Amino acid sequence: MKFFADTADTAAISELAEAGLIDGVTTNPSLIHKSGRDFLEVTKEICALVDGPVSAEVVALDHAQMMREGETLRKIADNVCIKVPLTIDGLKTCRALTNDGTMVNVTLCFSANQALLAAKAGATFVSPFVGRHDDNGFDGMDLIRDIRLIYDNYDFATEILVASVRHATHVLESARIGADVMTAPPAVIKSLANHVLTEKGIASFTADWEKTGQSIPIA
Ligand code: G3P
């Protein structure tokens, strides 16, 4: 399963990229707002930090204007992936951009039928929001299971990009189900390294090492 960082924080992206932990980045208008940075400038910077897809979202609601915004965004870098909302206008934009060889991420997906439409429109990625689904009394992971089943039934090439990931269990379940990608805030990705027995093990090895009175010579 590929990991994308769901952030526009370039320092956090650099740290994860240096450790080889991420395969791409997703942003949205709220994350751009949180960064306090110019949209085009920060997106260009992010595209240079990772080799994989960097999702940048259009803000127009009608197809014609989405196409114009998409034109601007796709000139930023070869690894830009245009993010469009799961509406009929967004799907029309998805089809037009993918026909032209541009990657498209269809976002704000909350049902398996919506995911079916994204696949029909030739989306590179579909982004079901599991956390927001949970927030509204549904089971976000059931949605991922349904989409996986449907896409496999028909060999759809669209990749399932699990979004709105809030905690480690969302990541684990996504991998169990066979999602293609998950995108999560850097803190969630880093939290996957945490285990109480790892911490206890480090503490006991450190204590025993100190008792040896030795040090490892540094060349
Ligand atoms: O990038 C879209 C998605 O991951 C947003 O997550 O936590 O705002 O629901 P969240």
Explain what this protein looks like in three dimensions:
With 219 residues, the protein is α/β, with parallel strands linked by helices. It has one domain: Aldolase class I (TIM Barrel), CATH 3.20.20. It has eleven helices and eight strands. It has an eight-stranded parallel β-barrel with strand order 1-2-3-4-5-6-7-8, surrounded by five helices. The longest helix has 17 residues, at 196-212. It starts with a strand and ends in a 7-residue tail after the last helix. The relative contact order is 0.13. The chain binds SN-glycerol-3-phosphate. The site of SN-glycerol-3-phosphate has 9 residues, from helix 7.
List keywords for this structure.
219 residues; alpha/beta; TIM Barrel; 8-stranded parallel beta barrel; 17% strand; globular; binds SN-glycerol-3-phosphate
Round the Cα radius of gyration to an integer and report it: 20 Å
Individual helix count: 11
Helix content: 40-55%
CATH homologous superfamily name?
Aldolase class I
Could you tell me the mean pLDDT? 98
Domains (count): 1
- Major sheet: size, sense and barrel closure? 8 strands, parallel, barrel
CATH domain fold name: TIM Barrel
3D shape: globular
Listing every helix as H and every strand as E from the N terminus to the C terminus, the arrangement reads EHEHHEHEHEHEHHEHEHH
User: Roughly how many Å apart are the termini?
Assistant: 38 Å
Strand order of the largest sheet: 1-2-3-4-5-6-7-8
Q: Give the low-pLDDT segments.
A: none
Strand percentage: 15-25%
Number of strands: 8
Structural class: alpha/beta
